[in-house]
Write a structure and sequence with these properties.
Order of helices and strands: HEHEEEEEEEE
Radius of gyration: 26 Å
Number of strands: 9
Structural class: alpha+beta
Strand order of the largest sheet: 2-3-4-5-6-7-8-9
Number of domains: 2
CATH topology of the largest domain: Lipocalin
CATH superfamily of the largest domain: Domain of unknown function DUF4822
Number of helices: 2
């Protein structure tokens, strides 16, 4: 049997149900936002592919280099620089010697592939961190070396 109290109780239940739905929707949206903002491949300063390429294009010198077991080998690179050019060529210089080749970002912008002139296969470096003045790379070998570069 219908009474004003029944309508009031039904209305209160509808409001409580809607509040729960809105709260759940808010939690779902917040969770999705957290997941998407925390899924960066590596720390980087730019988000567009052209900007990422522009961040790589520079003259870099080694700030720190370590072997897979943590041995510091920075002193081996005291005169080493590498220049990544906009035309996807590079030049490595160490003392009086130099070598050239081509470089490219992989499709996911997670790796830099260096192919020395005269070779058909290249060296693959995994990008750990990339900012305009700082780049950390790791070799893709089974015993990876890690190199931290800063702009020259």
């Amino acid at each position: 049997m219908w009474s004003p109290d029944t309508t009031l109780k039904t209305g209160q239940l509808k409001i409580k149900f809607m509040k729960k739905q809105i709260t759940l929707l808010f939690v779902l949206i917040a969770s999705i936002a957290i997941v998407f903002t925390s899924c960066k491949k590596y720390e980087y300063g730019s988000t567009l592919k052209t900007s990422i390429k522009n961040d790589v294009v520079n003259v870099w010198k080694v700030e720190k280099a370590t072997t897979f077991d943590g041995t510091d080998i920075t002193s081996h690179f005291s005169s080493y620089t590498i220049e990544y050019k906009k035309d996807n060529t590079y030049i490595e210089m160490s003392g009086n010697s130099s070598s050239t080749g081509t470089w490219a970002l992989d499709g996911n912008n997670e790796k830099i592939i260096l192919t020395p002139n005269g070779n058909s296969s290249g060296d693959i470096w995994i990008i750990l961190k990339l900012k305009k003045n700082e780049m950390w790379l790791k070799t893709s070998d089974s015993e990876p070396d890690e190199v931290h570069f800063i702009t020259n």
